[in-house]
Write a structure and sequence with these properties.
With about 220 residues, the protein is α/β, with parallel strands linked by helices. The protein has helices at about 5-15, 20-35, 60-95, 115-120, 165-170, 170-180, 195-210; strands at about 100-105, 140-145, 150-155, 185-190, 215-220. The chain contains seven helices and five strands, in the order H-H-H-E-H-E-E-H-H-E-H-E.
């Protein structure tokens, strides 16, 4: 029977929901970093492969080969995610030059962040589903406010209690949208009996990102 722990389950859900190239990159990086220290149990039944010329000495074991392959893949993925980060910061600098204020919608997973973005924009720009982690790829849209002002509003990945650190590392580029924002809108599912705990989790993740003290509007859904 395949047995998976909580982190592996969350990573599996993320893998199913990643739509964009960036989302897939970040999920794969998180999965590889999660797998690397857990390879040992998978390969205990295999003997060592034979060595080089003449095949006298012991070669690399299958486990060592897999570790090497995964490490090389992690290195490549980190480079590609780093490239995505650079693209994001270039886009953010462009926004800063135009002096358009930015707003990030944050909150626990499935609290209604995408629905709020759709309501503000007035059309279905973000996928809104009654599912955990329906949004992995941030969606940014211009929203015109009543007094002639324009802001850029970004829907972000939902937080969860004890979000696996592999995900926070891998999604750093995406989560930087939160640290760059001028204002946060924290969406709270007011009907959820665990809403106070969810708010505490959101605060904890924001603190970890260095965005805990940003100006915030709380939106009860």
């Amino acid at each position: 029977v395949k047995v998976i722990d909580r982190t592996a389950l969350i990573l599996d859900i993320f893998a199913q929901h990643a739509q964009t190239h960036e989302g897939r990159l970040q999920v794969e990086l998180a999965q590889l970093e999660y797998q690397l220290p857990r390879l040992t149990r998978l390969w205990t039944h295999l003997s060592r492969t034979q060595g080089g010329i003449g095949s006298r000495g012991p070669g690399e074991s299958q486990l060592e080969t897999d570790r090497r392959i995964i490490r090389e893949r992690i290195k490549k993925m980190k480079e590609r995610v780093g490239h995505v980060r650079q693209q994001r910061s270039t886009a953010a600098r462009g926004r800063d030059r135009r002096l358009i204020p930015t707003v990030s919608i944050v909150g626990y997973t499935n609290a209604g962040k995408s629905s709020l973005l759709n309501a503000l924009v007035g059309s279905e720009v973000a996928l809104a589903e009654n599912k955990l982690f329906a949004t992995l790829d941030p969606t940014s849209r211009q929203v015109k406010l009543g007094d002639g002002q324009t802001v850029i509003v970004t829907d972000t990945v939902g937080f969860i209690h004890k979000l696996p650190h592999q995900l926070i590392d891998a999604f750093q580029a995406t989560l930087e949208e939160v640290t760059r924002a001028d204002v946060l809108i924290e969406v709270v599912d007011a009907a959820d009996p665990h809403a106070p705990e969810h708010r505490a989790t959101v605060q904890q993740v924001l603190q970890e990102l260095g965005a805990g003290d940003k100006p915030r509007v709380v939106a009860l859904n």
